[in-house]
């Protein structure tokens, strides 16, 4: 089928899924408010139902509803890259086709993550899902969750599959990401997905970063993009990165989703708790989070 042409670039916020206070339901009003805040801050795209969006804790109906809400709230102002993950090919296809029907602009696809696929099987999976949609696919490379560990050459092979145009690299492997950005960009466009590598990836020429921190402090994340990727002002970008690095690093030291939910509360934009079995940050962890958020709270004040 004809492939939809979508250009993804800039800071793509990996967004939270707001829940009611008891975690029992999606908080639709809070979700809409979150979108308004991010779009108003100049964010370049939204990525719901990824790791930050707790997709593994959502029922199929909730997953679909969250995608619908993000697409509706974005209202065409920024692209929405719908996160999709399933343990079966048909389950993934069903979610992908729903996302296309409700108006998503692209798909971020994580492969089945219980029984790791080998490269040949992964290609069959991606090919089948890509053939079911006209939307471009961002392959979500997250070996820590899927057990699928690919080198840069193998990742680039995935870009030969029609429709697999982009990569979100959450491997944390700076050498492999550099290889993809410097040597293999003609095959697949690699986006950074490891928070603490954001500066390095943008400096190397990554066309986008899918970043959970951007959903917390969007103004500062967009400012880093403008300074580093657009203007090429390395000195000023280093100064901007200092506080963003501290926040990114801290979130990687605790449960990431619990940290994101706590940070949004501290910043005055509560979106409810992380769903069980994830537990809230301890008092000590929360104090550390408050400390690294202080520069951003001071700016808002």
Automatic annotation (TrEMBL):
Which residue windows are coiled coil? none
Task: Specify which residues bind pyruvate according to the UniProt entry for this protein.
Answer: 52, 210
Q: Name one GO molecular function term.
A: N-acetylneuraminate lyase activity
Active site per UniProt:
140 (proton donor/acceptor), 168 (schiff-base intermediate with substrate)
Q: Which GO terms describe its biological process?
A: N-acetylneuraminate catabolic process
Signal peptide interval: none
List keywords of the entry alphabetically. Answer: Lyase, Schiff base
GO cellular component, alphabetical, reads:
cytosol
Is Phosphoprotein found in the keyword set? no
- Per the record, the domain of life is Bacteria
Family from the record: Belongs to the DapA family.
What's the name of the protein? Dihydrodipicolinate synthase/N-acetylneuraminate lyase
**Provenance organism:** Microlunatus sagamiharensis
């Amino acid at each position: 089928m004809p492939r939809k042409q979508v250009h993804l670039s800039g800071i793509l916020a990996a967004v939270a899924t707001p829940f009611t206070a008891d975690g029992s339901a999606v908080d639709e009003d809070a979700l809409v408010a979150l979108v308004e805040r991010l779009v108003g801050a100049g964010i370049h795209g939204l990525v719901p139902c990824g790791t930050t969006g707790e997709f593994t804790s959502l029922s199929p109906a909730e997953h679909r509803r969250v995608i619908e809400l993000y697409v509706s709230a974005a209202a065409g102002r920024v692209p929405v890259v719908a996160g999709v993950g399933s343990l079966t090919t048909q389950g993934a296809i069903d979610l992908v086709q729903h996302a296309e029907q409700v108006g998503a602009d692209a798909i971020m696809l994580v492969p089945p993550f219980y029984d790791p696929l080998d490269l040949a099987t992964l290609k069959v999976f991606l090919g089948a899902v890509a053939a079911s949609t006209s939307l471009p696919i961002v392959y979500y490379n997250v070996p820590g969750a899927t057990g699928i560990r690919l080198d840069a050459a193998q990742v680039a092979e995935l870009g030969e599959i029609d429709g697999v145009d982009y990569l979100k690299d959450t491997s944390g492997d700076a050498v492999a990401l550099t290889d993809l950005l410097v040597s293999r960009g003609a095959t697949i466009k690699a986006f950074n997905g490891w928070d603490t590598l954001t500066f390095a990836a943008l400096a190397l020429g990554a066309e986008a970063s899918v970043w959970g921190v951007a959903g917390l402090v969007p103004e500062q994340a967009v400012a880093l993009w403008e300074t580093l990727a657009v203007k090429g002002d390395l000195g000023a970008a280093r100064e901007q990165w200092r506080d963003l690095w501290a926040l990114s690093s801290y979130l990687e030291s605790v449960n990431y989703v619990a940290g994101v939910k706590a940070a949004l509360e501290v910043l005055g934009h509560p979106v409810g708790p992380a769903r069980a079995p994830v537990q809230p940050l301890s008092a000590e962890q929360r104090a550390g989070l408050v400390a690294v958020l202080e520069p951003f709270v001071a700016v808002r004040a």
